[in-house]
């Protein structure tokens, strides 16, 4: 008799859970190959509009360089020409990287990991 009561209670709870819309683990698990971001690149305007672009009021070359990851994230003047060891991030110009290394923290501006060395990149 106790087994029948336990089974009935389990069925009722299962039915109530399905009414609430609870998802099972199988429905939530994503594989490592699932895309987290869409394939097409998303460009952010940061205050520019289509009208500005058509009239030529915005400087496309510098904004494209910034979005393409070519400009230093610290000074926004010089090209990125170095990388940090051990994380390998290339986010700053060599002058800004040296300022980071001369400081107390010595942290990568991207991941905040401790920087052992800075290596200059020679891009042709």
**What name does CATH use for the topology of the domain at 81-124?**
Herpes Virus-1
Main sheet: strand order: 1-2
Average of pLDDT? 74
Strand content: 5-15%
- The CATH first-level class of the domain at 81-124 comes to Alpha Beta
- Broad structural category: mainly alpha
Radius of gyration, whole Å:
26 Å
The largest pleated sheet is described as: 2 strands, antiparallel
Distance between the termini: 82 Å
DSSP E strands, number: 2
Order of helices and strands: HHHHEHE
By CATH, the superfamily of the domain at 81-124 comes out as Zinc/RING finger domain, C3HC4 (zinc finger)
Number of helices, counting only DSSP H or I runs of 4 residues or more: 5
Helix content: 25-40%
| CATH hierarchy: architecture of the domain at 81-124 | 2-Layer Sandwich
GO molecular function, one term: zinc ion binding
Keywords: Metal-binding, Signal, Zinc, Zinc-finger
Pfam family, one: zf-C3HC4_3
InterPro entries: Znf_RING, Znf_RING/FYVE/PHD
Short descriptors:
mainly alpha; two-stranded antiparallel ribbon
Can you describe what's shown?
It is a single chain. The protein is mainly alpha-helical and 124 residues long. The protein has five helices and two strands; from the N terminus they run ααααβαβ. The chain has a domain at 81-124: 2-Layer Sandwich (Herpes Virus-1), CATH 3.30.40. It has helices at residues 2-20, 25-28, 50-55, 60-67, 94-102, and strands at 82-85, 117-120. The protein has a two-stranded antiparallel sheet with strand order 1-2. The chain is rod-shaped and about 80 Å long.
């Amino acid at each position: 008799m106790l087994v029948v009561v336990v089974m009935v209670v389990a069925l009722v709870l299962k039915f109530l859970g399905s009414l609430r819309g609870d998802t099972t683990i199988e429905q939530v698990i994503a594989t490592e190959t699932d895309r987290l971001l869409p394939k097409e690149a998303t460009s952010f305007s940061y205050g520019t509009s289509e009208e500005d672009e058509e009239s030529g009021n915005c400087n496309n070359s510098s904004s494209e360089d910034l979005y393409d990851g070519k400009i230093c994230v610290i000074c926004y003047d010089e090209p990125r020409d170095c990388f940090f060891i051990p994380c390998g991030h290339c986010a700053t110009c060599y002058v800004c990287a040296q300022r980071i290394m001369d400081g107390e923290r010595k942290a990568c501006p991207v991941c905040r990991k401790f920087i052992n060395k800075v290596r200059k990149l020679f891009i042709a």
